[in-house]
């Protein structure tokens, strides 16, 4: 189990879906940062269940408590511990699956690896764990804000409904104005209807979250292994249900010629080095080049569906798994703040590492 | 600069394209492994330049030397240092770009981050660095072989030429029979012609490497952050020119319903837990489930092209960059052993970490 | 701030002396360990304040809560979070020193490094932080117990009062029968009187804690940098007020000839490899050799004394610091469980690392 | 096997006593440092064998080669690989011990842990490994020099011959003027004679190396686990033959009262915060306070002696081990540059970590 992340801005997360609490310790946040307690709560609210009828109806206030690291409204350079009590666990919803392996969940692999598992709500493998990431990510965002860095994610695809516009053609701020978190209002409406229809069928559907990061100065990133995009990729792939990551031109870029793909450098009127195009996605050789960083993250359909499914139990015997519990028919609306949080955590770490890369 | 990788099976790589040597230290390889010196050389030969007219004509024997860690034909549990001398550097090929930033190379970002750079052949940012990875990966493969794990990669796309067959429909061993490393002979021929034509135009083209890993026992992988696919993703994204990673159903999976995407468990005739389908790509909750692991890696077109390009110099002044040097018009044929090497390194580390996950 | 420790059995501690809580997350404890909740409390009770009149009169119940990682009485392989609420903070006791640098405390260095500090009770630099280590150490002891490893520390010196007997000549279990934790009852009485007298003078005094570890199998330890004794040394030196560490023959061993110091190997009646003497302290080349491991840890006199002292304030102006607050006149009695905890944490980590050192 | 060290200024060392080469990769040295190639050689010369008749007569030129990381006389921010070929291995000197366990060597523990061992000259457990540390330490010293930090070690004890003067009473530069590296010429002469006499008896003797570090600014050090003195202690204890470490008042400090031990703060004429005494050894709460840092390191007598000793072989049978090979009768003269190197490596890492501790 590796629930620690980061080299200098380090996380250690903990907590099971139906245990007493989930939380995170951040070790390495520099001292002197204004601690915006309300902002953390607002970020948790963006992730919390029960936001609309297309998200799970589990009722968690997701109120957090600061246990350490903050004094007189400022970070102290000491570890910041944040906990969120679990309050609406309905563990009995899960007693029927205590000996079953739900298809495409982590039940079987946890069972094999650890010999036993907390089956209630998926235990540690539950996406509830990401609330701790969002809380930590909010602290990372505070640090980045001070450096002029903004992270903004949005839903760009649900099932086959795909937003064909690039991020420059969208008003990203509008993403927060609808339940789907798609910045195009028309598309948002279609997506909402589609998710709701899927929900009514007792099914689930996948989607894509896109993310744009602005204001990262040239220089952040630590090749050859900890390239900025490699760390972003790992961070995204560590989120529940993620199946793919691409940045800049991504998979589509493989069809281009070098003469089409290369981003020509020029000096702009302010004397700033820029590139005429940005197929590089703001990262070259694993280091930010000062252009916008953008990437896409693929989420599979949620494994829990309200339909009967064939499976086996812990004894290898065939069983029928029936869908119960409260789940999201599509995770991407709630995944938006999680993607942002993980991106912020990567960048906060890279910011600190870059400081240490110089005399 | 982070040139170290891995938690228990740890690498530390070094070397510039035109410096005296490149190499790697492996710290954490268990003792008692039969050291197959010839196998390392054969893996390096798969990656080395000059294999055919569609790869760079740089002539490097890429012969390696073992400096430590092996005695009486066996690993000793002590660090294994492998070095490869650079012999065919033509540094003067690069003098013209010593003050220029080549488009979509790492010249500018290294310059900004480190204040200076070894401009000869891209210095540390050169893909020559991956020879050290391949050497280390060969050692990881020896370890995995003993555990019954096989890693096999192949080219599945070059530009718009895309192999539509799944890996089960292919004889993967055939990939090594042609210069492109595509297991479908007809497609391989088309790809070869296409790359050669691109080369003649002085241009470059992207591609996709697919990889299949068999024999991984259920249990390998360290959630929540070091999920098996997250580590594979990071490892792949750390390879030069990679723009995207997807495993199992990948980006295509987002368009499926949960009822279509879920992999039903069953017990096979040998009493082994299996899944009827494998959209999970052999990994559930970040842990191997015993099925084949498969993933795809997107490579952009090589940035070096034999055409004039607009750019700027270190003083911000406009310059024309002319293509010189010896480069690959398409990296994917030589990327195949690199993808395998990185996958093997991830798995060797996960194998050791899984041992430590139990009492 | 590095509040994380360990490679595989990893800790992340947090908390200030007068904040809401202190605690620890253990990431990497294997699944399936019987979780002895009472044992953790009993270890905390050995460290807690107010045990006798020679320890600080701060009244902390030091009751802990498990937030995660345990289900059905067993560890789950997931992170174990333990917190201890602070209940008897008298922060006003510290308002007078909010702008003063107490001599030989960490006030000045934290102020310089972090720019601000939580001055209440020493904030993060308070030895209160060690309660989290004791809680984590109790979990490590559970794991070691299963492996047949026992860790036992005791007070061997207070000021000039020095126990001249070796650990083999003592009944170590008797250490827990007196307030000083010295296994020699006569010496314990003298030490108690001496500490009490020192307390009455408003002064403090140093001491030495000795520690013996039995049952460690040959093989644990990770040279060349993470030698078993090097990790033990670091762990001990990380405890508040520690000034020195020696193992085996220690500083006295430098006066011996090699012919006196070498431990001759022999095979005992059970066919077990043993050494005739054990000046090596159970560790050779950084790896346990199966003999008892023993070491000594020097603690300076507590910096807080009930006397006026010259110092300066944050503006550099001379001030008189007057001793207030509730403090130990001698730390070693309460340091005994802390030394044991840190030793247990090192050994638990080495146990897991040794598993990963083999094929 | 953990042959990696450091968080940001990271080492990976490799090499066996009688293998082709030993060496080190430094990953994390910032770019732009003037690379003083001659200085590295001069540091290696201080450690190399054959310096006088009281050191081993093995003849190693210990000439090193730079394989990477340096261009145009400056570090590039990329990994710096340094190798030293072994040239005077007389492996046949060791054939007689290939199946024997030499007393108080690492033969037995390596055999148990790794299942086999390179018995020639101690293989990886040989102090020859420290040449790589000295080379890396020289690079760290270059970095520290630029920050105004000086590291100076000297021999303060050989057997019972103990220099009673404090470092302030000595001209430390004189240490390099004699073969013993003791800054007091009279004592140096006595020590030389004593070591030489010990050598003639075919025996060995222990000693103490003291070390003083000046110019470290207040703020370096990373509590609570990576306290500056804890990292120094670990680094020293990782050196072959070290049995103890103490800093500041050390073990002697335990006999003092707090009122005697506390270091009063004052502001000096330059407005600089100072302490009137320095029993803290320049470190408070794990962080440098700007005063001189000083510590002592205990080295046991070398295990190889030219006398017959009782032992066993790999089959557990009694054997007589006879002393052969070329060894030091006392390691401390050659340990002086090793202690300095390890101290420099710790400080370089702490320097970089401290940069990352601030916004």
TrEMBL record, chains A, B, C, D:
FMN binds at residues 124-126, 240-241, 285, 300-304, 326. It catalyses: 5-O-(1-carboxyvinyl)-3-phosphoshikimate = chorismate + phosphate. It is an enzyme of class 4 (lyase). Reduced FMN (FMNH(2)). It comes from the Bacteria. Its EC number is 4.2.3.5. Pathway: Metabolic intermediate biosynthesis; chorismate biosynthesis; chorismate from D-erythrose 4-phosphate and phosphoenolpyruvate: step 7/7. Its cofactor is FMNH2. NADP(+) binds at residues 47, 53. Keywords: Amino-acid biosynthesis, Aromatic amino acid biosynthesis, FAD, Flavoprotein, FMN, Lyase, NADP. Gene3D superfamilies: Chorismate synthase AroC. This reaction introduces a second double bond into the aromatic ring system. Homotetramer. Belongs to the chorismate synthase family. HAMAP family: Chorismate_synth (MF_00300). This is Chorismate synthase. The lineage of its organism: Bacteria, Pseudomonadati, Bacteroidota, Cytophagia, Cytophagales. The gene is aroC.
């Amino acid at each position: 189990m590796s629930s620690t992340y980061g080299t200098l801005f380090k996380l250690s997360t903990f907590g099971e879906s139906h245990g007493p609490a989930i939380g995170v310790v951040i070790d390495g946040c520099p001292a002197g940062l204004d601690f915006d307690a309300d902002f953390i709560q607002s970020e948790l609210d963006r992730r919390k269940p029960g936001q609309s009828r297309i998200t799970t109806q589990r009722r968690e206030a997701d109120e957090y408590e600061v246990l350490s690291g903050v004094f007189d409204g400022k970070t102290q350079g000491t570890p910041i511990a944040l906990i969120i009590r679990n309050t609406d666990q309905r563990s009995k919803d899960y007693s029927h699956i205590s000996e079953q392996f739900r298809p495409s969940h982590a039940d079987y692999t946890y069972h094999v690896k650890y010999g036993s598992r907390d089956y209630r709500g998926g235990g540690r493998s539950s996406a509830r764990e990401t609330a701790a990431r969002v809380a930590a990510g909010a602290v990372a965002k505070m640090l980045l804000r001070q450096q002029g860095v903004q992270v903004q994610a949005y839903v760009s695809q649900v099932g086959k409904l795909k937003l064909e516009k690039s991020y420059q053609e969208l008003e990203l701020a509008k993403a927060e104005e609808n339940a789907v978190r798609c910045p195009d209002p028309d598309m948002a409406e279609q997506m909402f209807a589609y998710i709701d229809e899927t929900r009514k069928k007792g099914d689930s559907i996948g989607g894509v979250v896109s993310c744009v990061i602005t204001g990262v100065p040239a220089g952040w990133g630590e090749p050859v292994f900890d390239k900025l995009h490699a760390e972003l990729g790992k961070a995204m792939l560590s989120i529940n249900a993620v199946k793919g990551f691409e940045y800049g031109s991504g998979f589509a870029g493989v069809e281009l010629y070098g003469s089409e793909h290369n981003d020509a450098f020029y000096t702009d009127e302010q004397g700033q080095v820029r590139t005429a195009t940005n197929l590089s996605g703001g990262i070259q050789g694993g280091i930010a080049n000062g252009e916008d960083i953008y990437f896409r993250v693929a989420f599979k359909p949620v494994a829990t569906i309200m339909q009967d499914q064939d499976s086996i139990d812990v004894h290898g015997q065939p069983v029928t798994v029936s869908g119960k519990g409260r789940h999201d028919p599509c995770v991407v609306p709630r995944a938006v703040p999680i993607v942002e949080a993980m991106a912020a955590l990567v960048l906060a770490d890279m910011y600190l590492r870059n400081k240490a890369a110089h005399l």
